[in-house]
Amino acid sequence: MTMKFDAIVIGSGQAGTPLVFKLASEGMKVAFIEKEHLGGTCLNDGCTPTKAYVASARRMYDALNGEVLGVFIPNGVKVNLLKVKERKDKLIQKSVDGIAKGVDSEEKISFFKGEAKFTGTKSITVNGDQLESDQIFINVGARPLIPEPFQGLDYLTNQSILELDILPEHLAIIGGSYIGLEFGQMFRRFGSQVTIVEKADRIISREDEDVSAEIQKVMEREGVEFRLGAECIGAQKNEDGSYNVKVDCKNGEPEFTASHVLLAAGRIPNTDLLNLEATGVEVDKKGYIRVNDELETNIPGIYALGDCNGKGAFTHTAYNDFEIVSANLFENGKRKVSDRILTYGLFVDPPLGRAGINLQEAKEKGLNVLVGYKEMKEVSRAKEKGETNGFMRVIVDADSNKILGATVLGVGGDEIISGILNVMYADVPYTVIRDSVQVHPTVSELIPTLLEGLEKQG
Question: β-pairing, 352-356 with 267-269?
């Protein structure tokens, strides 16, 4: 028997979940499909749990580094990973329960727990049930990439590492990008020996070189080890359960032993699980669903939101996808993906906040820009806090005086970037924030000073 719906939403991530409730509130009969956990990656395996762990790691760091501020804490501080995990689980469960309660109480929503597969252009099967709708919204997210040399090994991912209740003795992390760096610092602070292996010559190579260098320097001071330029990455499990991690690095350190291996070498979209061949929906060579500026695929009525469309790999871009679709469907909106400005954070300590383009991109594009740069050690509040690592950089179009991008690496950087981002969205000259009055003493108050000293880039 085929069940017909006004809409089908596949996936309960940060686009799918609010969309389901929006569709139902508009009187539509909606099928809501989720194969694993309500709330998607961000809630269950991403932002919520990792930032809870980051907070615990920061408490550990503070306990061990009080002397510089005149606070002596006797030796003996240690982490109870089981307690950290229990706190994380409670945070997640509260949110999941809230979503489940909302779904159960909405008579317009029919929930299906299982893996969705297309059987035709507008038809889907899940657990033997056949569903049909003229409007289908795909929000299936992504999963960790498992490099071939590690397939078949007992490796950890960003999901399974959060289930550990015993601290790894030596954690090897394959991948020196955002996920790897966050887990690397937090587990080093918990007390694990940590080695990060990266095939590139520097970590987070999409960032400016001085950003990569500063973050690496900070983490090395905390005891994180790096193996960069790794030419042949792999691992072999020993009889005692440890791993020989092969790196064949240029610095002559070809191999080391670790108790656990975390794979953080990238993510791939879950689109290969959907049998999209039955629909005619186009995907690119990496498996991301091709969408237009309104997030509709080449098949009218089928939309792709969140990580699976390749238009952003963040919770905030997924939620913005929902906002775009919702506004255009129900509010006569004309919102477009191309209107949003790239912004994200790296939640190491100190955190990195980014908006727009960086200096590396400005140079590659040959743009005529002015640049403001200040080190955090020039910020009074940073000095008072004893947190002077990092710097700020703002890039301004020399012709229009509009801000093109900013990098804030330092205490509060993940929050400060929002002030700059707001000016960019307002589409006003940089002088608006340069001439503003900011609260003293804050880190943000250096932004106007930073913008007073713009220099031409040759």
Answer: unpaired
**Over the stretch 288-315, which tens digit does the pLDDT of each residue have?**
999 999 999 999 999 999 999 999 889 9
Q: Which two tokens stand for residue 73?
A: 């804490």
Q: Kind and range of the H or E element at 89?
A: helix 81-105
Question: Who's near 292: CB < 8 A, 6+ residues apart?
Answer: none
Contact 254, 167 (CB under 8 A): no
Mean pLDDT, range 29-45, rounded to an integer: 85
Q: Is the separation of the CB atoms in 218 and 351 below 8 Å?
A: no
225: β partners: 195
Q: How confident is the model at residue 281 (pLDDT cuts 50, 70, 90)?
A: very high
Distance CA 209, CA 267 (A): 23
Whole-number Cα distances in Å, 419 to 196, 385, 440, 451 = 33, 21, 15, 13
Tokens 């610092």 belong to which residue?
185
Cα→Cα distances 276→77, 290, 307, 380, 426, Å: 52, 12, 16, 56, 40
Cβ atoms of residues 208 and 359 within 8 Å: yes
The answer, yes or no, to whether residue 458 has pLDDT greater than 80, is no
Q: What is the DSSP string of 116-133?
A: -EEEETTEEEETTEEEE-
Instruction: Give per-residue pLDDT as tens, 111-148.
Output: 999 999 999 999 999 999 999 999 999 999 999 999 99
